[in-house]
């Protein structure tokens, strides 16, 4: 995805449609992942990104290929937004040889080195250090690449985040901390476990923080572009709080969830705040939407079929790649 | 086998047994409380704590932020000042985050203060692979805590032991780490109607035998028992010894069995190198040296991060087949 | 030490003199500890509190005996301020049987359970959880005791602090976080390693923070009293940043330190900002100062003599108290 | 003994040898940098890094906040994106704080990514007691990291090995944890004038002998050598084997020595239970089973938190006297 300078009124139409395509692809990917789980074709559990597409796509659309991201347990969206191939992703979800991690990582550990994705992480907040270190090397090696750290608001509970934000601020590292606030830490409302304010957590370290509408891909893109510009210019880290919502359960198995999240809250977000609908409306993309949707669905369906047919790794691979 | 036959029992899952232990101790002692992520309404992702918040309220079944070090530290402070917290660490892999609070703080509080302070803290967590959860949600890190003086470490295998040991842990005046194999929560077994505890530090012979001793921890007890069945068909009589707690370790029972059979296999789901299996093997190799007819053999998890793909993950864990093959080679029946 | 309601103009004279006595005792204790090191009579190293006396004494003078504190590697001051016996402390520093920890803890681990001192800690920031947990139990057990967490500004680098402040704020725990900002983390200026602001670190969690002159015992006492009142009334945690200075090196062996700390900076603090001189002046305590000084010096000298003569534990004690 | 006599050497302290290794690697490779608390002007509390910031500047010898987890995480991220960081963790006791970054992140990066990512990260830290530093500054926690697949672990005993292994660690494409005994920094030994490296995974026979093998790690090598001297006077010939690295472990050299002498003592300063000594003992007890004339004996640190008082602390560590007594009992010379 090429970078385009954001106009205050929005983004140019080409970029807007490209973002729409990515978001549709994420949605289609997740629907298929869910279906693979439900039909018992996927081992284990997975955490779906549906509903949050505007965050990953808005952010990654403002990045270059050599910029790095670190991702989370809910990482498919970041991965696709940064340019990954969905067939290789499905292969990974199914534990197949051709997966991004040769089947060793699974959904929670997809990494796509070529596109700068340093990996999803199954430890909440666990990649905050890695992302900050990528910013460190960007600066130390004299490049102008930037590093994005995606994390859910649950990661605000992990002390590591504060340790590394302090260093990023001190050393003016080109790091963008992107907090995806989808309102829930698993089965607990974030308000029950989050004191004070979220932006304040960054501002305490002298890091500028912005509240962003995470359902508005253009707003996310613009906020990220500003942070990227600042980072490339040596201005140091930024922090974005993107208000968003996950449509599905915490993971694919989290079906009966009314005890922690009301059905009509879910419905309201889906009906009123869907990021794909909002972007399509903004671009007035009726026809293109249908075309893109059809294209993307075909691509994703083919990827699923490919992955289902793909071979498993040979069991002997189990002892490979322990050491480089 | 200590699961008693004389008393009235019911079949419970291990999950239910743990839930009962917590409920009974919460009822018995108002200073007991549970602290952890999603422990209240959700009853943890494994649903092990289901119903507790309804009976005891959110002040005693406390949902926390995702702050394992902080939770453990808060629990320790409460323990030092009159309470008996039970900390829920969702996955044993997250022990990585709490080692300072556990090993540098809780474990040393009593000793460093010359006996004046106490830390009656229980940490419940999980171990075990094959859930297709990949490298950061599948580890069995009990060897780390067993290595720390001042900690007690329980690795129960049955609902009976899980309940009885957890009750002992909560009543213990020391920090105790209890590991439950996440794949065992639906495992059923008899649990007495009446109250009981299982003392910490006493091994249990889960099956008596003459030819080979299999020392097995946690869910590996079932692997050992399955192997023992198969071996019986081959004419090999296997004794399965479950240490039940790693620290303190009931070396006497282990060594006695080893002396009796002269052949020992240790099966443990931690990585084999520098794992619990090394200590268990070293203890019997030294203590039963003059009685051993063959080297003590170890079967731990393969020394690789746990891979996601089922075809790979299944390679990493000890299986009944491997125990059988090892036992047969020890008795000279096959290679 | 009894509590006295702070008048805006200061504290009553009785309390003022009691604080002065405690501060003198700490100074004398540290001078003797230093001497024990220099004469090779004390095993290991120790971190002296000289210069920072007003913080420990100002805080602890606002506490009851059943209120708890947690302390640091630089803990003698907290210990004495909370009421410990100096002879038993010296015994501990020398590894003797009659020490507070029967010789097992040493300088960095003195705990005085009877006076509510839950222990010094050799892990920077390591007691933040313990202190917060003591606040948890105070509330859960229905008492109105409060918990004070002492820590150096270096502990702002430890993520644990942020994790527990979040919980203290959420659950309105009666905890007072006392940051002793003596400007240095060992051999590094705190400014080089501390981004943003110190009070902001607490305010981000909705915890009120106050900057306090840590050389002014009365100011510390008053700020603490306000925080204690709030905590006992169920108002939740507070955070105090006490600006202070250590007179000696990081530890007794840190003699040649001009490379990180200018001699005349040290001299200025000693000459212009000495907390004992400042309090004595405020109380106009010329005569009493001399008397108290003499008394305290005699007490401390006797304690040193006692400790030097006291027996070591029997080697067999090494295996005692591993388990309770 | 691999410290070569044919090449030109100087006597250096272990501290100087480490400093040289860092300086050489910093000079050789611009992607190498050092990160830690008080590493720059102060050169660490042990002064091991003295002078480096003067030569390489504060951008490559970086003073950090007191944030062990954060530092390690930052280093890992830099390692994954083209650099070769050397993290300084002042005391091995603080490993408690970085286990998540080390064990869940760095160790698994390469494997979990199917080989696509690398983490060429070196962590330097300390072990060892008797410095009168009490329970939180005296631990030897190398067994924890040795238990984690994906990590390499070095425990050098001599200036020669310390320098050569550290250089190998920095050049290695994997995370390596290097332990230096803080009591050994002033220990002197010959170090070649010319550049060299010591390969990771190769044990070294520090003294050849016939009757008893003493496998000793880190500073325990000196305890073993001192005991060997004393035993020679008693007519007992001792072979001292230094594994030098725990992971990978050179099992061949250890087992060969055990087979030759038939009597083995393992000396390690970690707590004995579930310590490195358990793995070393288990490996030789199994590998040399048919050649052993006596049980493998272990001497680790006592299973107590390290106490402050010198009269107590000195009880907790293996001593030459205890090695001598153990060796004599093994050869049947006394009880
Ligand atoms: C350190 C750690 N603690 C707990 C967990 C279990 N866990 C997995 S996801 C999750 C909730 C994360 O919430 P958030 O960060 O808001 O991300 P979201 O799932 O909402 O995208 C928890 C508690 C974990 N993986 N890592
Ligand atoms: C977790 C941890 N990291 C490092 C150290 C080593 N250390 C001991 S004191 C100290 C500096 C502490 O500075 P500060 O918190 O400001 O306290 P001060 O010494 O100034 O009173 C350091 C780095 C430690 N004890 N614990
Ligand atoms: Mg969330
Ligand atoms: Mg300081």
Q: Can you describe what's shown?
A:
The complex is a heterotetramer, with 2 copies of chain A (324 residues) and 2 copies of chain B (335 residues). Helix content of chain A is 44%, strand content 10%. Chain A is an alpha/beta fold and 324 residues long. In chain A, α2 packs parallel to α9 and α4 packs across α12. By secondary structure, chain B is α/β, with parallel strands linked by helices. The two termini of chain B are 32 Å apart. The mean pLDDT of chain B is 97. At the B-D interface, α4, α5 and α9 of B face α4, α5 and α9 of D. The complex binds thiamine diphosphate (2 copies) and magnesium ion (MG) (2 copies). One thiamine diphosphate sits at the interface of chains A and B.
Question: What characterizes the major β-sheet of chain B?
Answer: 7 strands, mixed
Order of helices and strands of chain A: HHEHHHEHEEEHHEHEHHH
Q: Report how far the terminal alpha carbons of chain B are from each other.
A: 32 Å
Going by helix content, strand content and strand pairing, the class of chain A is: alpha/beta
Can you count the helices of chain A?
12
Number of contiguous helices of chain B: 11
Alpha carbon gap, first and last residue of chain A: 32 Å
Largest sheet of chain A: 5 strands, parallel
DSSP helix fraction of chain B: 25-40%
Strand content of chain A: 5-15%
**Low-confidence runs of chain A:** 1-8
* Coarse shape of chain A: globular
Seen as an oligomer or otherwise, the chain set is: heterotetramer
Question: Secondary-structure element order of chain B, as H and E?
Answer: EHEHEHEHEHEHEEEEHEEHEHEHH
Question: Bound small molecules, which ones?
Answer: thiamine diphosphate, magnesium ion
Could you tell me the mean pLDDT of chain A? Answer: 96
